Structure formats: structure tokens, C-alpha cells
Amino acid sequence: MELTFYIAAAVAILSTIMVITRYNIIHALLYLVVSFLAVAVVFFTLGAPFMAALEIIIYAGAIVVLIIFVIMMLNLTQEDVQREKEWLKPSVWVGPAILSAVLLAELVYIVAAGTPPQTEAVVAVDARLVGLSLFGPYILGVQLCGILLTAGIVGAYHLGRQKKKVIHRFLQERSAAA
Amino acid sequence: MENYIWLIPALPFLGSLLLILFGTRLSRALVAILGVGSVGFSALITILLGLQFLSEKPAFYQQEVWQWFSVAGFNPSIAFHLDALSIVFIFVITFVGFLIHLYSTAYMADDADFSRFFACMNLFVGSMLMLVMADNLLLLYLGWEGVGLCSYLLIGFWYKEPANGYAARKAFIITRVGDTAMAIGLFILFQTFGTLNIQAILTQAPEVWSVGAQMAVLVGLLLLGGAVGKSGQLPLQTWLPDAMAGPTPVSALIHAATMVTAGVYLIARMYVIFELAPLAQTMVAVIGAVTLLLAGFSALTQYDLKRVLAYSTISQIGYMFLALGVGAWSAGIFHFMIHAFFKALLFLCAGAIILALHHEQDMRKMGGLRKSMPVVFWTFLIGAASLAALPIITSGFYSKDQILWYTLAGPNGNIWLYLAGLFGAFITSVYTFRMVFMTFYGAPKTHLDHPPGKLITIPLVILAILSLVGGFIELPHNFAHLALFSDLMAPVLPGITANELLAANEWLFQVLAAVVSLGGVYVAYLFYQKSPGMLHSLERSSLAMKLHRFWFSGWGFDALYDNLLVRPYVFLANINKRDIIDSFYTGLARMAEGFHVMFSQTQSGVLRNYVAGIVVGAIMILTISLLL
Amino acid sequence: MSVSTMEAALLLAGVLFMLGLISVLIRRNIIFMLISVEIMLNAAGLAFIVAGSKWVQPDGQVMFIFILTMAAAEVSVGLALILQIYHQLKTLDSDAANFMKG
């Protein structure tokens, strides 16, 4: 089980690195799916099989598909990949990389400075318990999530609508006459 | 009746409030009814209250309306204290004020700002009532400042003329000098007694201070400073002649009923302090004597009808101060009342003349009005006779004679003060009848187009009757011996006894006073009626002309203050034109502006920079929490 | 160095989060930025799962479901915004949308 975890973790990190270094969005998205799948395996090893399923269905499924739809609508070409290459120069990414490395070092330090390591058996928390607490003490959170999703739907609909070009009616008439 | 005391000042305030809020939307008739009616009703209540007071003879009426505020043991209330002194004052204020209001409806009939005028007049009367009815000095001070404000508003009523605005500012600033002194006096009183209640102070003062105590003298002088500022006495008298810039009814109100008599009231009200401070009281007498002479000489030389009256007011208030200063308290208040009648009368007559002659105020361009304006002539003559104190028939004689008599024969009497008063009486009758002869006799010089109507003449006649008979309530000891007024005042103000030795010969001094005033009339007649050549020969001598110019300018006080105070101040202000202290604050503003420019640079619109900012912030917070 | 699975998983969450962060910082393409935000959200969810697993409580998984919901809503609105930007500016360069700079 532990070996599975480490392999999945390695795959997740590697595939994520591949995601952030790709010039082609579609390639990046494929690596992203791999990354999500690896994380799902990690969930499984941590005793959360239901969450692993959700990760695959929603992240690797729904969200990535949504992004791909949008990319298809944007109709990107080889030129965009070329421009992506120009944007991603070492001078651009060295600074942020160092910054993030510092942050990571601090996080690692915090984790290492915590309780001394002790090996303990992974106990699965099954979906039934999750469901009970979701619709028990967390019922308010569920309702808030419902509101959030509604807002998301309305917002996306409103923003995604193709607005008619606003031209003054006299100008339109003139162009029609011409 | 005493439950309605609060209505007396409340009605004018209400009238003023209504006129301020809705004045421009009301018709002129309604404005007049509101403005005159509010003061009229207060006068009615005052008269009813006065009759009740005379029949019941209580020591005082007291009414507390509500507690003003309460801070650290200081609990002034909006409370009214009415004793004989205040009742005389509110009677004069409301009654004479009512007549002046009535007169104003005709005088101001053509003015565009009819409602503003009545709003200010009502406020003026209300503030003055507040001043004289207050039972504590803080409320008195509120009325005191309210009067100052209203004088500013009304003197500068025709504000489109810059000179009027200047006169208004001058009145406001000069009286402010006195007010500051008075405020300091109030601070000392509060620190000493822990209260500003007038009656409490008056009863406690003799226990705390001995006669001549340093603090008592200091407080007395500070209060005197306030009184001098409001009453236009030396050295703060310069604003009063310029206050003539306002409409004539305003001058009548300022000079007869409100404002300038506030100083007299203050001194009479706080008489215990002045009795404990002989130095301050002597100062009152000296200031009164000097002022009455200076103002008398200046009045001799003026050509503007209203300025003559203004200087005569200064001079007459000087008499009141003289009376208060020698301890003849009741005589001073008596003279105040009589003076209110005849000075209001004279101003209203002057207003009628000025209105009839197209706002012409120069006496040299008047003349011969005796025939064309008989009512005004006779009433003016009565007022002038009262001012000049013609013996027996005028009330002015009785009040002024009483002052002169006690100045000489009273316990604090002084021969020099008496002589000054006597000489002042002579000058008074000279300038008064100079005014009469120049205005009403001789050949007409300006066409008269606007004969006074009923609304103007009725107040004149009422005031003329009062000026004649008002004096008969207080007659000298050796002449019918009637002392209604001083008996009325006796519970409030201490009486005065004359020197035994002189008292036997009182008639001699009365004859002297009568002769002096008649002599003044004769001199005026000689110079201005019988043989004007004498005047012209006098005008040819250079010394006389120099004196004339000096007196005409009011003894050069304006120039003196200009050179002593105004010019150095303007000079210093010019040096500090860019305001050194202010630059510190503008510096702060500049700094804020600089930071604004700096930080708005960070709003670059580049999303990644914002994220980088968040990351740097997170790193800093984490680092700090790790280090601590 | 002996670390338990829990700590290793926590470190994995940290590393994934950092990778997402770097990507947000270095990418100008607005779609890449959105993807990076998804990576970061996923990493945060992982941390919650680890915590829940550590204490054998369902709360961590409940939180993950909430994060999942939020991510779905966010990505839908975010993509709609991207479409708008692309239509308005004809580019996916996030730096181009700087009309409100100070």
C-alpha cells in the first residue's frame, strides 16, 4: 500500500511539472488528467475511496472536459503555441520559482517540526460516514454549496452570452444604406 | 400670570424662527403681523405681569423652564428671574420694541428684504429679553452674544453697500473685545463660587471677599470691560456712530431698547461685586463722566442727523454709568427708562424725516420742516426737550437732575464728576437744539415728497407722551417728593442718602441745572437762529476749525486704533501671508498625495504581479510566525 | 529519513500547491492560469483528505466535497470570463486586460 502511495505521488508530481511546462494547452490538459488520476490513487491509499471516485469523475472528467470545450471554441492554432514558447523564458520563471521554493521550504519545515513520525495503520473512512455527517452537522454547508452552484450557473450563463455589438441605431442605418 | 413668564422671550424667538423658515413665502401683511404681533404679545404679557407685580409686591418671580445641561457639578438651567430691575428692563424692551416694530412696518414697507428685517428684529428683541431675564450668568451671556450677533446682522442689513458691511464688522469685533473680558470675568466668578447663578453669587460674594479684595476688583473691572464694549463707552465707543449704517428703526432699537443698555443692566445686576470693589466702581463713574463729555463735544460737530443722536446716546449712557458709579443705582436705571422713551422717539422722528427727504441724512440740507411735518416737529421737540432736560415739564429733567444731585451729594460724590456732568448737560442742550434749529427752522432746502403716515406718527405720539409724563413717577424730595420708582427698586438695589449739609440747599442745585440747560438752548438759538454770523466768524479761526475736525472725527479714536492695532496687525499678517504653521498641514496633504501616486503605480493591471504580492505576503507572515 | 505516509502525503500536497503557484506566476496565458488554480485547489483538497485520514474522521472528506463544488462553480464562471475576454480583446494574454491600471 505504501509503495503504491509513493509511486502515485511521484507520478502526480512529475505529471504536474509537465502540465506547467507545456506550450500546447491540449498536451498540458492530458498531463493534468494524469495528475488528477494519480492524486485519486493517493486518496485511495489514504482510505478515502469515495473521494477518489469523485476526483476522477469531477476533476478529471467534468472540469477538464469543460476546459477542452472552451479551447475548442477559441480555435487556437500553431501560432498560439509559438507565442506560448516566447512567453515562457527562463528570465520569466526563475524569480517566481525561487519565491515558491522558499514558501515550500517553510511548509516542509512546519510539517517536519510537528509531531515525531509514527507509523500508524491507515483506516478507511467509508462513504456512509461522510454522507451522514454531510447531511447531519454540515447540512448548512451543503445548502450554501447549492446556492454557490446556482450562482455559478447564472453567472456563467450571463457572462457567456454573446452580446450583440452595440452600435448606435443611426450608424447601423447608415451602414445598411451603404 | 407668572407661569407665562417664559412666553415673553419665547414669542419673539418663535416669530423670528417662523420668519426665517417661511418668511420669503409669506405675504408682506402676514410678515408684518407675525413680526409685530410676537413682540406685541410679549409686551402685553409684560404689562399684565408688571401690574400683577405692582399689586402683589413679591420680591421676585422665578421660573425654571428646563435644565440646560449638567457637566461636572455645573448645572445651568434655562431659568428666568424677574425682579423689579428686570421688569423695568423687559417693559422698556417689549413696549418700546413693539412701537419700533410697528413703525418699521411703514418705514421698511418698500424694502425687498422685508421678512429678513423682521426676523432679525424679533431675534434681537428675544436675545435682549433673554439677557435681562436670565437667572444665571451663562444664560445672560447667551443673550449677550445673541444681541451682538443681531446687531451685526442689522447694522449690515443693506449689505450690498461695502461701507455697511464694514460698519457691521466693526461693531461686532469691537464689542467682542469687551465680551472677551466679560467671559474671563465669568470664569473667575465660576472658579470662586462654583456657580453662575446670579442670586447665589450676589449673596455669597460679601462672605467670600472683603471690601476692596483684589479678586473682586479684578472681576469688577472685567465685567466693566464687557459693559463698556456693549454700551459704547470709552475706550470701545467707536463702533456706535458707525452703527448708523443700519436702517433707522434698527438704530432706535439698538439705542433705546436693546444692546447698548445691556452694559448698564450688567453693572446694576452685579452691583454687589462693584460695591466690594470701590476701585472698579470709581472707574465706572470716571468712564461715564469722561465719555459723556467726549461724546457731547463730538455731537456738537456732526452734520449727520443720526450721528448726532448716536453721540448723544453715548453721552447719555455715560450719565447712566456716572449714576451707577457713584452708587445712585436707582437713578441710573430711571434715566435708562426715560432715555429709552425719548431716544426711541428722536430716532423714529429722525427716521420719518430721512424717509420724507429721500434718505437724506445731512442736516445742512434740511430745514424748515416745522411747517411741513407738524406732528414730527412737535414730537421731536418734546424728545429734544427731554434730552436737553428742560426743567419742570420734561421727564429728562427729573432723571438727569437726580443723577447730578447724587453725583455731588451722594456718599461717593465728587465735585469734579459733578462739574463734568453739569457741563455735559450744557453741551447736551446745545447740540440738541442745534439739531432742532438746523432741521426744523430756516428755509426748506430739500423737497419733501413722502409725508409720514399713521403707522409712523402713532408710535411717535405715544413715545412723546411717555417722554413728557414718564418722569412724574419720581420727583425730587423738595418738590412733591414722589419716589415711586426708587421704592420699586428698593428691594433689588440699595438706596442712597444725600449729604445732610447739601440736602438743605438742594433747590439751589436744581435751579443751577435748569439754568444750565436753558442756557444751552439759548446758545444754540444764538448761533443757529438769531445770528449765524457768529458761527461763521468762529469757523474762520484756524484753532476752532482744528478742534472741529478733531471732534468731528470722534476725538481721533478711529485713527488711533487704526495706527495702534489695525496697521501693525495687517503688517504682521502680510509677513505671514503664506502661513508658516499651515505649511505643516499642507505638507501632510502633499505626503498623502505622494503615497497615492506611489501606490497607484502598483495597480499595474498585470495579474501575475498581484499574485506575486500575495505570495510575498504569505512568505512574510509565515516567516514572522516561525521566528516568533 | 523515516516519514509516515501521512506526512509524505502532506508534503505531496505542499509540492503540488507550489507547482500550481509557480505556474500562475509564470504563465501569461489566462487558460493556463485557470488550470494552475485548479491544481492548487486540488492540492488543498488533498491536504484535507490527509487530515481526515489522520484523525479517522469524515470531516476532511466533507471539506473536500465542498472544495470540489467550489472548484466546479469557479471553473464555469472562470471559463465564461475567459470567453468574454477573448471576444473583447482577441487575445488570451492576461496582461492585455489592464484598462483599470492606476
TrEMBL record, chain A:
Annotated GO MF terms = NADH dehydrogenase (quinone) (non-electrogenic) activity
Q: What is its EC number?
A: 7.1.1.-
Which keywords describe this protein according to UniProt?
Cell membrane, Membrane, NAD, Oxidoreductase, Quinone, Transmembrane, Transmembrane helix
**UniProt KW Oxidoreductase keyword:** yes
Catalytic activities: a quinone + NADH + 5 H(+)(in) = a quinol + NAD(+) + 4 H(+)(out)
UniProt-annotated location(s)? Cell membrane
Q: Looking at its record, which EC class is this enzyme?
A: translocase
The residues that cross the membrane are: 6-23, 30-50, 56-76, 97-115, 135-159
Q: State the annotated membrane topology for this chain.
A: Multi-pass membrane protein
Q: Write out the similarity annotation.
A: Belongs to the complex I subunit 6 family.
Q: Which PANTHER family match?
A: NADH-UBIQUINONE OXIDOREDUCTASE CHAIN 6
The function of this protein is:
NDH-1 shuttles electrons from NADH, via FMN and iron-sulfur (Fe-S) centers, to quinones in the respiratory chain. Couples the redox reaction to proton translocation (for every two electrons transferred, four hydrogen ions are translocated across the cytoplasmic membrane), and thus conserves the redox energy in a proton gradient.
This protein's name: NADH-quinone oxidoreductase subunit J
Automatic annotation (TrEMBL), chain B:
Please name the Gene3D superfamilies in this protein's record.
Answer: 1.20.5.2700
Q: Where in the cell is it found?
A: Endomembrane system; Membrane
Q: Which UniProt keywords apply?
A: Membrane, Transmembrane, Transmembrane helix
**Residues in domain NADH-Ubiquinone oxidoreductase (complex I) chain 5 N-terminal?**
68-118
Membrane-spanning parts: 6-23, 30-54, 78-102, 114-132, 138-159, 180-202, 208-229, 250-274, 280-301, 308-330, 336-357, 377-398, 418-443, 455-473, 507-528, 607-627
What residue range is the signal peptide?
none
Specify the protein's topology with respect to the membrane: Multi-pass membrane protein
InterPro entries, per database record? NADHpl_OxRdtase_5_subgr, ND/Mrp_TM, NU5C-like, Proton_antipo_N
Residue intervals of the NADH:quinone oxidoreductase/Mrp antiporter transmembrane domain: 134-428
Which Pfam families has this protein been placed in?
Proton_antipo_M (PF00361), Proton_antipo_N (PF00662)
Q: What is this protein called?
A: NADH-quinone oxidoreductase subunit L
Q: What is the lineage of its organism?
A: Bacteria, Pseudomonadati, Bacteroidota, Cytophagia, Cytophagales
From TrEMBL, chain C:
According to the UniProt record, what class of enzyme is this?
Answer: translocase
TM region positions: 6-26, 31-51, 63-83
Q: Which terms does the record give in the GO molecular function aspect?
A: NADH dehydrogenase (quinone) (non-electrogenic) activity
Q: What is its EC number?
A: 7.1.1.-
What reaction does this catalyse? a quinone + NADH + 5 H(+)(in) = a quinol + NAD(+) + 4 H(+)(out)
Question: Keyword set for this entry?
Answer: Cell membrane, Membrane, NAD, Oxidoreductase, Quinone, Translocase, Transmembrane, Transmembrane helix, Transport
Annotated localization: Cell membrane; Membrane
Q: Name one Pfam family in it.
A: Oxidored_q2
Summarize the protein's role. NDH-1 shuttles electrons from NADH, via FMN and iron-sulfur (Fe-S) centers, to quinones in the respiratory chain. The immediate electron acceptor for the enzyme in this species is believed to be a menaquinone. Couples the redox reaction to proton translocation (for every two electrons transferred, four hydrogen ions are translocated across the cytoplasmic membrane), and thus conserves the redox energy in a proton gradient.
Alphabetized NCBIfam families for the sequence: PRK05715.1-1, PRK05715.1-2
HAMAP family assigned: NDH1_NuoK
Family named by the database record: Belongs to the complex I subunit 4L family.
Name recorded for this polypeptide: NADH-quinone oxidoreductase subunit K
What species is given as this protein's source? Answer: Pontibacter anaerobius
What's the encoding gene here?
Answer: nuoK
